[in-house]
Write a structure and sequence with these properties.
Strand 2 and strand 3 form a beta hairpin. With about 220 residues, the chain is of the alpha/beta class. About 25% of the residues lie in helices and about 30% in strands. The mean pLDDT is about 95. Helix 1 crosses helix 4. The strands form 3 sheets. Strands 5-4-1-6-9-10-11-12 form an 8-stranded mixed sheet, with helices on both faces. Strands 2-3 form a two-stranded antiparallel sheet. Strands 7-8 form a two-stranded antiparallel sheet. The two termini are about 15 Å apart. It binds cytidine-5'-triphosphate. The site of cytidine-5'-triphosphate has 15 residues, from strand 9.
């Protein structure tokens, strides 16, 4: 199968030396890319700026901004069987990017932020590929994850609770709950991201197979 996996954060420029970003390390996305290759799938990995070695055998596309992420996903999604949107795409970007470094002044500074485009929500509803979203939540995990599943018309949403210092962002372990479009759910208990990734890739490939069987 052909996997398109996104990973890491995006960076939204404020001026030539500053940006807004988030704490995503890219570890989960890279672990999934590795697990997919290990399982014999082909992988295109669209990655934001991270400090990780790209998995051998993956086609790596490096991006920085949410707009570049949007364009890259749209360019490649037509050629995949499973899209895994693991990237922590910024929700807002500065309304204006200053061409010059903003100088320090002795007064408060307000930044006007505008929403970025939502990559997942922009994808066609009538599609051939399985769309997997991720939901990083600090509260009401199930309710929020199910909302995202519906709002972004995903086939699967993988949710993780990011307030736990031992699981989720920047850590080497993860614990996730998987919500399916049909209402079912499944849990993977805390384990190294590598193991969680292997399980997830199996589940995604299996689900994509089921969709194909239903359609034929
Ligand atoms: N996502 C996206 N485009 C964006 C923002 C998010 O495609 N501009 C995707 C993420 O890659 C992820 C899913 O949407 O698969 C959910 O992202 P998350 O940040 O958890 O949710 P948001 O929709 O941004 O909502 P909130 O931040 O309010 O929880």
């Amino acid at each position: 199968m052909r996997f398109l996996i996104t990973a890491g954060p995006t960076r939204e420029a404020i001026d030539p030396v500053r940006y807004i970003s988030n704490r995503s390390s890219g570890k989960m996305g890279y672990a999934m890319a590795e697990a997919a290759i290990e399982a014999g799938h082909t992988v295109v990995l669209i990655s934001g700026p991270v400090n990780l070695t790209p998995p051998r055998g993956a086609q790596l596309i490096s991006i920085l901004t949410s707009d570049q992420m949007y364009d890259a996903v749209h360019r490649h999604v037509g050629n995949c069987d499973v899209l895994v949107m693991c990237a922590a795409v910024a929700d807002y970007k500065p309304a204006r990017v200053s061409a010059q470094k903003i100088k320090k002044r002795d007064e408060t500074l307000s930044l006007e932020l505008i929403p970025t485009r939502d990559v997942l929500a922009s994808l066609p509803r009538d599609r051939q590929f399985l769309a997997v979203g991720f939901a990083a939540e600090t509260n009401d995990v199930e309710e929020n994850a199910r909302k995202k599943l519906r709002a972004k018309a995903c086939d699967i949403v993988v949710a993780n609770y990011v307030s736990d210092p031992n699981s989720g962002m920047e850590t080497d372990e993860n614990e996730v709950t998987i919500f399916f479009r049909g209402g079912e759910m499944n849990k993977i208990s805390r384990a190294p991201k590598k193991n969680v990734a292997r399980e997830l890739i199996k589940i995604f490939a299996n689900e994509r197979e089921k969709c194909l069987t239903k359609k034929s």
